[in-house]
Amino acid sequence: MKRILHISDLHFGRLIPEVADALKQKIIALNPELIVISGDLTQRAKTSEFIQAANFLNDLPSPYLIIPGNHDLSTFRLHERFLYPWKKWQRFIAADLEPATETAAYKVIGINTARRIGHSSDWSRGRIDASQIKRVQDFFASASAQQIRILVAHHPFWLPTGHEHRGLIGGADPAIEKFQDNGPDIILSGHVHLDYCHVHGGIIVSHAGTTTSDRLLEGYPNSFNMLEVQPEHILISRYHWSKGEFAYLTKQSFIKQSDGWYEQ
Ligand SMILES: [Fe+2]
Ligand SMILES: [Fe+2]
Questions:
Q1: Superfamily of domain 2-221+231-263, CATH level 4
Q2: Measured in angstroms, how far is the CA atom of residue 75 from the centroid of ligand 2?
């Protein structure tokens, strides 16, 4: 089984240094092939936050794939938000806002779902558009039967009971419908600072909480997920911050059948 670590919502600017240091040690111990980071790298998209984040990323002991979140757009410097929204990201973090990578065991593609202006009054909500859906389908069309297809998007395609008020990503329903054809096996997201895994439309939707920030919801400590993938089988282990360390909490097992994924 190949190991992929999923962390999210690091929020440099609201980072807890002790937790970030422990995360690095845990990554060394778990030794993943790839680290996926699903957005909200910073709190206010400040230059100082991006520099701190870039130093953290440079020190990671495994390769990583990263996409931005809504917090990586400036909220208060509107000229920056509208005229050159991703200039700092591309200068300090990554030139490619929608990176992709693959091995014999998996194909991973990220999309940028943060928007300068939202369709609702809440601009923190993201969106997936038709061109992104097609790009994802084109990327996965060439996947072999041995490759798990992984989509990384900051905003949620499904929300647990009691958290629906956070709002799904704009375009969630048509995307899940289109993804029945050449879509992902699993979507990795963040944004809501909750960790959960659920099968939706035959696709596994897996969220990491805020891995390193103090922007915690009551009852949801800092967390990350570890995926172990093999053809037609995915294990997702959840780790929670507890008593000064990241401790294994629980594991969910998913299998692929002819009409999609099921939790075992
Ligand atoms: Fe966040
Ligand atoms: Fe977010």
A1: Metallo-dependent phosphatases (3.60.21.10)
A2: 12
